[in-house]
Design goal:
The protein is of the alpha+beta class and 215 residues long. It has 2 domains: 94 residues, no CATH class; 105 residues, Alpha-Beta Complex (Aspartate Aminotransferase, domain 1). It contains 5 helices and 4 strands. Helix 3 crosses helix 5. The protein starts with 16 loop residues before the first helix and ends with a helix.
Length: 215
């Protein structure tokens, strides 16, 4: 979806070309995160070269399942290909989203997520009490570092651990954590199309405020 070259058409894509071409582009660009596509993780799938591997791993026919051995096998007997015997129409969420915003809509949303992550990195880098650490795609890591006191990395790790716990309990914003080079960092992942630069500015204020209270 993020790559410029046209993805190859698969033979069975002629009946549903928009959806299949989109998935072909997803495979080609190795985009595996459903969060980046603003759809639930439950719609994610694993593509296998040989479907028989799924049958060998998951097919189970207990005596309380009634099977007519004389009947031909159905084309796609999904309960023999995974852990679930029944499943909802999960692909509908993908199809409806594509119908609503199209490929260009996804490109715009992902591009905006990346831009917000870069904006957060720059804001943290320019702040006297924050240390910007990494930025890649829609992910940014940083940590709170008091400017008027000398803290070693172990003390900063403890401080930022407490900061994150207070931030999550407060409910004003949600960050996770990452460990990079032994440093405990605050990790922001942008996946909500409603997030704005104003939200990023507010996040900076909240993190610094909590950090000052804890130090």
């Amino acid at each position: 979806m993020l790559t410029a070259p046209t993805a190859p058409r698969l033979p069975h894509c002629q009946t549903h070309p928009p959806i299949c071409i989109c998935f072909a582009r997803l495979i080609r660009s190795r985009l595996t995160r459903t969060s980046g596509c603003t759809i639930p993780i439950e719609v994610a799938c694993t593509l296998v070269r040989d479907p028989q591997h799924l049958q060998d791993a998951f097919s189970f026919r207990p005596p309380y399942y009634a099977f007519d051995e004389d009947e031909p096998e159905p084309g796609n007997d999904y309960f023999t290909m995974g852990l679930q015997n029944t499943r909802g129409f999960r692909a509908l969420k993908v199809w409806l989203t594509l119908q609503n915003i199209g490929r260009s809509g996804y490109v715009d949303m992902i591009r905006n997520d990346i831009a917000l992550a870069q904006y957060l990195y720059e804001a943290a880098d320019n702040h006297t009490e924050l240390e910007a650490c990494t930025q890649n795609l829609s992910l940014t890591t940083f940590r709170y570092v008091p400017s008027d006191e000398n803290f070693d990395d172990e003390q900063l790790n403890d401080l930022n651990t407490a900061l994150l716990a207070n931030l999550q309990k407060g409910g004003q914003a949600f960050l996770s954590n990452a460990i990079v080079g032994g440093k405990y960092l605050l990790r922001a992942c942008f996946v909500n199309f409603r997030t704005t630069r104003g939200d990023v500015d507010k996040l900076i204020e909240i993190v610094v405020c909590i950090g000052r209270e804890l130090r």
